[in-house]
Write a structure and sequence with these properties.
Length: 306
């Protein structure tokens, strides 16, 4: 009997099918992807240089590719998606390729962007290493992914409702990285000047069921490989909806849902990049930069032993 690979957290085939249904269905549920793509484009516009060849990794419905094109920062942009059906619909030249196995030669790209795709990758450190290798020296990687605080309200009420009804809990919401993890992964992958920050986005829904329906339309349902089989029982859904309205409702009877967006960026190492000085090599004082007076800390009083 074969032993399951515990490193395979997500069902990638299921993720691909859900993406296809979400995008090809055309039900207008991509508002969050469009919003994050625009915020990513603003960050790219802040970079005071252009890029020759760029790739949008996991392009999905093409929101990120469109936003990058509008910045005018990239001369040539290509895109990838694990779904051949979606890759064929993208607004730029594209290739069907899984984010876990990149088809790019080493040092061949100037820019890699990815918006809300990498949270479904089983081996995120491995993917980041592949991205860094594919970048030319001083090439930029910029990505957004869902963080660990995403849908914390839903996690809370689902867990409590299932515990009340069934006497136990199961995996109903996919695990996600937190900010500290994201920053550490960039360093481990060999990126220079790594930066990671977070941006919570709060969305109002009529009720908890509207939120769960929207997640399904987005293609963002639970894809953990060892997820509990079958749909949630009606009694659990009813209790979760009641708890959600009670704890996270606000004016008009609506409820809040938080999506934590992690933005990460790093540069492929290059000799021309700025590097931090070693201790003792500074030529200017911090007090001068802050416009304050530098004062010694003073002697430390050491108690005399009796």
């Amino acid at each position: 009997m074969s032993t399951p690979d515990t490193r395979t957290v997500f069902d990638r085939a299921l993720v691909r099918r859900r993406r296809e249904r979400a995008v090809l269905g055309g039900d207008g549920s991509g508002f969050l992807f469009a919003e994050v793509a625009n915020r990513m484009a603003d960050r790219l516009s802040d970079v005071t240089r252009g890029f020759g060849l760029g790739v949008d990794l996991g392009s999905r419905g093409g929101h990120m590719a469109q936003a990058v094109l509008q910045t005018g920062r990239v001369e040539r942009l290509y895109a990838t998606d694990a779904s051949p059906a979606l890759a064929g619909r993208l607004p730029v030249p594209s290739v069907a390729a899984d984010e876990e196995t990149l088809p790019f030669a080493d040092a061949s790209l100037d820019l890699v962007v990815s918006s809300l795709a990498l949270h479904w990758v089983n081996d995120l450190p491995g993917t980041l290493v592949q991205v860094r290798r594919a970048l030319k020296p001083d090439g930029l990687f910029l990505a957004a992914l869902f963080g660990g605080e995403t849908l914390w309200q839903l996690r809370e009420v689902l867990m409590e409702a299932e515990l009340t009804v069934m006497g136990g809990v199961s995996a109903r919401v996919s695990p996600m990285a937190d900010l500290r993890d994201a920053a550490g992964l960039l360093q481990r992958a060999g990126f220079a000047l790594p930066v990671a920050d977070r941006d919570p986005i709060t969305v109002a829904y009529t009720d908890a069921w509207a939120l769960m329906r929207d997640l399904s339309r987005m293609g963002e349902g639970n894809a953990v490989r060892l997820r509990a089989p079958g749909p949630l029982r009606r009694a659990i859904l009813a209790e979760a909806g009641r708890l959600y309205a009670e704890r996270h409702g606000f004016e008009g009877g609506r409820v809040r849902a938080t999506f934590e967006i992690l933005y990460i960026s790093g540069w492929a190492p290059a000799a021309t990049q700025q590097k931090p000085l070693r201790p003792g090599q500074a030529t200017k004082r911090l007090a001068d930069a802050l416009g304050t007076e530098e004062r010694p800390a003073g002697d430390v009083a050491i108690p005399r032993s009796e």
